[in-house]
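Title: Comparing notes on inverse folding

I've been comparing how different people in this forum approach sequence design from structure. To keep things fair, I'm posting one structure and asking everyone to reply with a full sequence. Here's the target:
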């Protein structure tokens, strides 16, 4: 009898424990769904950032187990003595300003035109988006051939039109190389901006255009007073993407100029690569990486603050 009672008590305790576990699982079920993503984030994003921040305080070649603590010396040198860093900052600023201004204006205007009822509209849309689907490696090597000083299409065309004085060694002239690379970036990115602007324009109710037409607004006035304000949220989002992409620009510089000549076309991301993997100054490159992260974060926060509370109500 005592054995049966003890068994019944143990059974009740087991059931109670199981119920507690089930209640805990129900209460925290969402955590188990995000756990795989959390593990990936901690392993491949959070931990590398922490390790990079730590390495920035040391002189280290990335291979040797020996490292020398330097404190903030890397950051002081970057901000006060490193000419290559100043050139990289300048080039990234050029890249960001030109990208945002040109793609905002041209992207919106082309999207406006492609939103009109014109013949072969879908073919034009596909043609604009086609460069976006190409690999940056393909784009880089294609434009490298275009920029060839002797057989390249650009210099050849200038000579054919009698403009030989405008020919350049486009990827070896310190005055124009960075702008030649930015032009390639604009060509490769324009289709994306056009498609996003086009989607935003198609979301604007036709009734608003009809009301504007009744009030006498046609063509440019409809675009300026109706389409531009109602797509401003999309425009600001594209500004954020464009600025971050400009700050992190790397592939086209690597493919076309390798930062040359004499750091004239070097950007921050390429300088990090050059320091870490070509000259083995991993500690210094880590400090530069943290600065790049801070710059990206500051730009993003400023943009988000500017976007807050500025949505147009339909």
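Reply #1:
Here's my take.
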């Amino acid at each position: 009898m005592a054995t049966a009672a003890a068994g019944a008590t143990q059974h009740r305790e087991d059931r109670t424990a199981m119920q507690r576990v089930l209640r805990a699982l129900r209460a925290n079920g969402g955590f188990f769904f995000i756990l795989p993503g959390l593990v990936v984030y901690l392993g491949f994003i959070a931990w590398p950032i922490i390790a990079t921040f730590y390495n920035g305080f040391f002189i280290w070649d990335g291979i040797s187990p020996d490292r020398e603590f330097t404190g903030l010396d890397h950051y002081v040198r970057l901000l006060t003595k490193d000419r290559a860093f100043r050139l990289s900052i300048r080039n990234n600023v050029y890249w960001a300003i030109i990208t945002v201004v040109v793609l905002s204006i041209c992207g919106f205007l082309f999207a406006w035109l492609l939103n009109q009822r014109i013949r072969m509209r879908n073919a034009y849309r596909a043609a604009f988006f086609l460069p976006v689907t190409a690999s940056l490696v393909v784009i880089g090597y294609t434009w490298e051939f275009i920029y060839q000083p002797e057989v390249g299409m650009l210099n050849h065309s200038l000579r054919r039109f009698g403009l030989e004085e405008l020919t350049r060694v486009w990827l070896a002239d310190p005055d124009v190389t960075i702008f030649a690379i930015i032009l390639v970036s604009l060509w490769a990115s324009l289709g994306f901006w056009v498609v996003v602007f086009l989607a935003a324009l198609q979301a604007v109710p036709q009734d608003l255009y009809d009301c504007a037409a009744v009030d006498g607004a046609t063509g440019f006035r409809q675009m300026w007073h109706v389409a531009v304000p109602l797509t401003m949220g999309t425009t600001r989002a594209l500004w954020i993407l464009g600025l971050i992409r400009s700050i992190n620009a790397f592939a086209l510089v690597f493919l076309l100029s390798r930062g040359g000549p004499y750091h004239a076309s070097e950007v921050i991301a390429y300088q990090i690569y050059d320091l870490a993997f070509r000259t083995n100054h991993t500690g210094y490159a880590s400090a530069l990486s943290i600065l790049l992260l801070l710059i990206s974060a500051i730009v993003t926060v400023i943009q988000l603050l500017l976007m807050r509370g500025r949505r147009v109500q339909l």
